[in-house]
Amino acid sequence: MSVQGELILGRENLSLMAGEAGKTGTAALLDALAEGVMVRSGDRFIFVNETVLKIVGYEGTTEQFMAEGVERWVHPDDVGFVQSYYDKRIKGHDVPESYELRLLRADGETCWVTCRASTIQWNGETCVAACVYDITEQKIKNRQFERAESIFRSIFRLTPEVMLISSLSDGKIIDVNPAFLNVFGRRRDEVIGHTTQEINIWADQTFLGRFVEELKMTASMTDVPTTVRTRGNLIRHFRIFAQKIEIEGEPMLLLIGRDVTEDLVQAQELQRSRDTAELANRAKSEFLANMSHELRTPLNAILGFAEILREEMVGPLGSPRYKEYAHDIHESGTHLLSIINDILDLSKVEAGRLEAYLTWIDPLESLEMCMTLVQQRAFEASLSLEHQFDQNVLIEADERLIKQIALNLLSNAIKFTEPGGKVAMNLEKTGTGGLCLSVTDTGIGMTAEEIKIAKRPFGQVDSSLSRRHEGSGLGLPLVTAFAEKLSATMTIDSRPGVGTRVSVVFPPFKVREKDDD
Question: Does 206 share its domain with 280?
Fold first, then answer.
């Protein structure tokens, strides 16, 4: 028999329990119920079953529980209407038979219960008996569901994306958001209850069939490209996102569409700009690479005739100042030729025309030649020039590129080292069997940010010392390109005020001992 029917097996049997010292079979039955049973008289309980104690998490006895009074266990915000219902029920007035209220648990937390109440006779006194059932978890789930539904409705209403909900069984539209109506220029009554085919939104008539067939094999689809017919019969590019959902037990389709027309146009414009810039850069590089002979030939002539004048090879000039002028012409021409050579080398790299003729070479002769070429410059700068080379190695490389790497590194080190400093070139085996060519100086050094600048083409690390030695800013970028051409890697270790070490490391397969020949 249900406790919530006539309430506790008949009022007579419940009344008999009041005079019994021990629990009868009826009392034991009441304690076994999932519902809490309580009888109230005035401001106190005169009976509660064990389930009530479990609901509120009370660890004492039923007698101790009842001794604390009714208001101890009813939430303060609900005490008013609970008391009002009790008073009216006792007087025989109409009040709700079933309602919800909050109880206070023993640990101070709140729990929700549904309550079904009725009057009974208890030892000749009119009392109120109630059955309560814990619905806290259901309340939490309901609140979570309502919150999620509220968030979804807000997103559905406010998002600029086009959203549509349709039935999976017949394809009829159940709901659309305002963005959908705005994009397609429709009223709600023109859309709800119709299919997307009926309102003719697909520019590609075959799309929907293919889309539905693919959707049958999966629960969701993302980023599907399509074209749609929007307001004014305009064709726009969309990306479609689809998800199967369930509403009131019926399978539905949630469709979200994003207009990507402008994104595609911008991407196409950006690609065209990139193609144009790449074409222009390639044309520039090709031009400079092809102009190598035309640029160097007249400069070599200028340098040659300036050298004849400076050395007075065909007789005296007549005035000592002419000899100074010839010297200046020669120095400026040499400097200009160096810059042009660097630019042309970089242009060959950019145009993919840098060639390397790889053979097994002894690097010592090339490196010693480079040391000799910069020795006078180091002497004039009051620098100590040192070297230490492994005498028993061969490397597979291009001798010309090895010389250019060494000269660029030495020239940079001398340029950025103050008088009294030291520049050293080393060639030594690595722990993995490779070979490391390094140039170390005690110069001004660089920060990590300055290293990034120095490695960029035409990058100049601004300092008072570097300004005294003009250059193209191509030394390190060229070394990087030459090293990569030889399957080597360049690294830079530097500290401001301490110095710089630039290393070019060749892998083991590019190195062998002379004795292996």
Answer: no
